[in-house]
């Protein structure tokens, strides 16, 4: 539109003046406008959900990929001056595409060039820039030490910027908690273009960005993290059981024990529809596990706490921790270099939702899920059950904004995928997962029906695109992600970004803003 063409020109002119009149410069190669042939490749590069690649998906006026911290304040200044939105992108894994899609005119600040990682094995800490991927972080840690690790997600291409600021969990969750629980310092650029660290940002802001979502508060440049001890050898196994092999009973039983296991033991379950050997449709549960120790210790532990699974020595493999990262991500364990890849080949169309389970679901409740999985749209649907307990029970609900601690047995991630050929039928798949979500209501957390912010779901509530979002409107989704921590997040937001410059469909509102 004409309006957006003007905004675009004014913004670019502002940038060029800013860089002309200060000591900081920026190479024109770092600024991509739609008539630049690299614009589309750079936009698509880190998109992780093909739902947001269609022609009709709103596109940014400009993509900026700064190389130096001091370039970023100019981008913030010119965006403010011209009433243009900024979407900050690190790894691009946002489930609803919020880091690269907006209904109102916007630019993408892409931190692709901020991917430095410095590991201090002696101090057991590391500085990680926001555009780095967790796979590269794992790789760099392992390069220095076989007995250090970090609790973060399973998929290596996830970006540190979104992941740490929204929580971040993986197979070390029961022993060490979330990524955000293990952040000890950070560098952020605020709405005034000031670069702050833990000390200068103060306790409130430092609290907010560890789980409250970075995008509401500023541009997070880098994180200092506490590395954690892992043993020289860990054990992994994946045991699959179909309905004919008592999958329902095993899942039912798992619910009573998985959160009480020894903290060194993490067993998650991936459930999907498959064909069995006689080509009949069935449900398969994959019990996928890591134990922070050797098989000789694991076997008696399993015999005592979960004999029903029938785990035997042949199911288990001992390996280093970094190899277990590869194993969980589905890669051959011999070549850790794949962890340095910034993109993954398997990008699909999907929609996901999350739930917390506080009382075991009865067998008939599970069977109702299976019935939904037999429907056509669930061809590539999946639920992933991740056990809580362990240290998660000992961290207080208000320690960081992420509130889902004691009282939760496990978390479910509901996922439905579909292919290019079904792109025009996306609504069918989305309504399937909404039906699954309604079906689950009696079995999961209530008041609020809690959700994990890193599994972003715009169905649970959104802000206004235009005009003011009231506290009570934002609280609808905010209470689900953050419970009572939402109120403190609003106070922090009102203090650090009163004009609500950093905003999106699910950003924390400022009480003073007219937006
Ligand atoms: P992206 O760049 O899309 O950012 C996400 C949000 O954070 C956006 O709102 C963005 O604006 C904001 N943001 C990003 N960088 C910022 C910065 N530097 N400063 C301020 N705001 C910033 N989660 C998990 O806990 N465990 C797991 O195992 C997995 N696995 C997984 C696999 C796959 C394939 C996907 C697609 C996603 C996951 N996730 C996950 C979810 C993941 O943690 C979540 O999507 C993160 O927010 C992704 O962070 P990115 O930086 O990649 O996203």
Automatic annotation (TrEMBL):
InterPro entries hit by this protein: BBE, FAD-bd_PCMH, FAD-bd_PCMH-like_sf, FAD-bd_PCMH_sub1, FAD-bd_PCMH_sub2, Oxid_FAD_bind_N
Pfam family, one: BBE
Glycoprotein is among the record's keywords: yes
Keywords: Alkaloid metabolism, Disulfide bond, FAD, Flavoprotein, Glycoprotein, Signal
Pathway where this protein functions: Alkaloid biosynthesis
Start and end residues of each FAD-binding PCMH-type domain: 56-230
UniProt cofactor(s): FAD
Protein family: Belongs to the oxygen-dependent FAD-linked oxidoreductase family.
Listed name of the protein: FAD-binding PCMH-type domain-containing protein
Native source organism of the sequence: Penstemon smallii
